[in-house]
Every structure is written in C-alpha cells, then in structure tokens.
Amino acid sequence: MDQGSSHSVTTSHRATSSDSHYNGIAIRNVTAMVTDNDRAAVTITESSGFTLVSEVPGGHTDTYTVTLNTVPTGDVTIAVESGDTGAVTVSPATLTFTAANWSTGQTVTITVVEDNVDQGSYRSMTISHRAASVDAQYSTISIPSVTATVVDGGSTGPCTASSGVQRCCLQWR
Ligand SMILES: [Ca+2]
Ligand SMILES: [Ca+2]
C-alpha cells in the first residue's frame, strides 16, 4: 500500500498489573516516523557501476539491468532509447514488467556502432527510458537515464577522464 513518502504512527500503551500502583497507569505515547517503501520506482543497475563500450574489438558491448521496486497494478512497458543510434544501439528496445516478474532484473545490452570514423577519444551517449502502463504510478514515473561512454576505435589520446574511461584504456589500448 502506498501511503506517501513517510507518515507518523502513534503507539499508545496502558499497563495492566496486579500491583495497584501500576495497574491502569498511562504510559507515554511513542511516535515513530515510518518511511513508506512501497513507492513506485524503477531501479537501474549498471554492470561494474558504469556503462562503457569501445569500438576496439573486445569492448563492443556492456549491460545493465532494470527492475521495478513495487508490484504494478498492470503491465509496465519501458521503452529504451539510444540518444544516437549511429553511435550505440540498445537491445531489447522494450522491456515488459508484470505483476509476476516485476522484481526480476531484465538485461539491456548496449552495443557500439563500429564506423571506422575517428570521432575523438571518447563521447558520452544518453540511454533514456520511458514507461507506459495503466498503473498511474508507473505511467507518470521518471526513470533515470544511463550515460554510456563510447570509446572510439581510433583513440590514442591520454586517459584523463572518468574511472570508466581509464579502465577501458588500461584494458584496450
Ligand atoms: Ca558496465
Ligand atoms: Ca568511430
């Protein structure tokens, strides 16, 4: 049940005892903040914590998984879109989550497009996600995008960027 991001719960107590000093005595109420963990959300987990593909053989693909955080009231489809299909492609293009498989990670594979064109040492591509569902919580949800680092085949430049690029250069240069 979704009850908002958080709400307070008041627990009252009253003692029962054969000791007349304690029987029926009022005990101070306890109020606790309860965080609702039933809020609709989509979790994206990048393998190794980042997404990087390289035009150099051996590094063409990378993957990440997608799961829902709550049981949807209807099927949820998530469209996966590459910001530049001339640079990277995605597969599959659509993920479908049901009340039966919502918590099972579905894998998206990112594949670099080998174009034999020197485009500089690396570029960042955005992979975006858009949900559709009869479940209003999921049809309106904002899903984080994935940033894929694309290393060019002609790259010989110094590795000065993020850890993902550095690892790639160590591995593939
Ligand atoms: Ca990865
Ligand atoms: Ca290229």
Write the layout of secondary structure elements.
Elements: E1 6-14, E2 26-35, E3 42-46, E4 51-54, E5 61-68, E6 76-82, E7 88-91, E8 94-97, E9 106-112, E10 122-133, H1 136-139, E11 146-151, H2 163-172
Parallel strand pairs: 4-11
Antiparallel strand pairs: 1-2, 3-5, 5-9, 6-8, 6-10, 7-9, 10-11
Bound molecules: calcium ion (CA) (2 copies).
Q: Could you please describe the fold and organization of this structure?
A:
The protein has helices at residues 136-139, 163-172; strands at 6-14, 26-35, 42-46, 51-54, 61-68, 76-82, 88-91, 94-97, 106-112, 122-133, 146-151. With 173 residues, it is mostly beta strands. Mean pLDDT is 82; it is low at 155-163. Helix content is 8%, strand content 44%. The chain is built from 2 helices and 11 strands; from the N terminus they run E-E-E-E-E-E-E-E-E-E-H-E-H. It has 2 domains: 6-35, no CATH class; 43-172, Immunoglobulins (Immunoglobulin-like). The strands form 3 sheets. Strands 4-11-10-6-8 form a 5-stranded mixed β-sheet. The structure holds calcium ion (2 copies). The site of one calcium ion (CA) has 6 residues, from loops.
